[in-house]
Amino acid sequence: MTLPLDTLIGTVSSRIIASADELTALDSAIGDADHGLNMKRGFEAVLADRAKISALPLPEALKAIGTTLVMKVGGASGPLYGTLFLTLAKELPADPTVADAARALSAAVDSLKARGKSDVGAKTMLDVLSPLAVLLASGGASFETVKSSVDGWAEATVPMKAIRGRASFLGDRSIGHMDPGARSSAIMVRAVCDVLEGTA
Ligand code: ADP
Ligand code: MG
């Protein structure tokens, strides 16, 4: 499938930018109140290069996005989202099938786990991205299923105790709040689905 790169970049970036206050509020409860600002800075930089990036073949475009996120987002999430996009860049062909996407996401999640020395259940973005890789690999998931699943997985971080990242410093006090990175991952995945199904 040839992806509508320009619309994907525009929609994902603008949804993240529009969610900056929500993400920052989540990070103020269990972190240092910068996740929204970090992500906004990164995706504003991606948007600034939108025309240039969307003219590239998919792997090169993903590499440009990953590099920009590493340079601009900062915090823990910048290198982690950077790793995610850079691994997708390495793994995806220019015109990926759903099976290609599933395999690439699974490799990207593995790189992210290695980079963050983390896994599912630690109350991080991995609690959305890792089950998403499993769901895609199972094949045949509808956009609606993917969208409601990612929202549910982000919600499921609320009762978790953080054992990775800044929120882990709070111990039991991290319980009862949604993880900001899980939420930003869900927002990005929902935006991608909306574009691919033509409802963005
Ligand atoms: P920082 O924590 O440095 O202020 P951000 O606020 O931008 O960075 O990002 C915080 C998010 O990063 C967390 O909500 C979590 O989802 C994610 N995160 C932090 N550490 C890890 C890790 N080791 N593995 C996976 N994700 C992580
Ligand atoms: Mg933070």
Walk me through the topology.
Blueprint: H1 5-18, H2 20-30, H3 35-48, H4 50-54, H5 58-72, H6 77-91, H7 98-116, H8 126-138, H9 143-155, H10 180-196
Helix pairs in contact: 1-3, 1-10, 2-3, 2-10, 3-5, 5-6, 6-7, 7-8, 8-9, 8-10, 9-10
The protein binds adenosine-5'-diphosphate (ADP) and magnesium ion.
Compact overview of the structure:
The protein contains 10 helices and no strands.
Verbal overview:
- This protein is mainly alpha-helical and 200 residues long.
- It has a single domain (5-197), classed as Alpha Horseshoe (Serine Threonine Protein Phosphatase 5, Tetratricopeptide repeat).
- The chain has helices spanning 5-18, 20-30, 35-48, 50-54, 58-72, 77-91, 98-116, 126-138, 143-155, 180-196.
- Helix 1 runs antiparallel to helix 3 and helix 7 runs antiparallel to helix 8.
- The radius of gyration is 16 Å and the shape is globular.
- The protein binds adenosine-5'-diphosphate and magnesium ion.
- Residues 27, 31-32, 34-35, 38, 75-77, 80, 116-118, 124-126, 164-166, 179-182 line the site of adenosine-5'-diphosphate (ADP).
Report the structural category: mainly alpha
Mean pLDDT: 97
The total tally of domains equals 1
Strand content: under 5%
> How many individual helices?
10
CATH hierarchy: architecture: Alpha Horseshoe
* Largest sheet descriptor: none
Low-confidence stretches: none
CATH class wording:
Mainly Alpha
Unique ligands? adenosine-5'-diphosphate, magnesium ion
Instruction: Let me know the CATH homologous superfamily.
Output: DhaL domain
SSE pattern: HHHHHHHHHH
> CATH fold name, please?
Serine Threonine Protein Phosphatase 5, Tetratricopeptide repeat
Helix content: 55-70%
* Rg, nearest Å: 16 Å
Number of strands: 0
**Measured distance between first and last alpha carbons:** 18 Å
Shape: globular
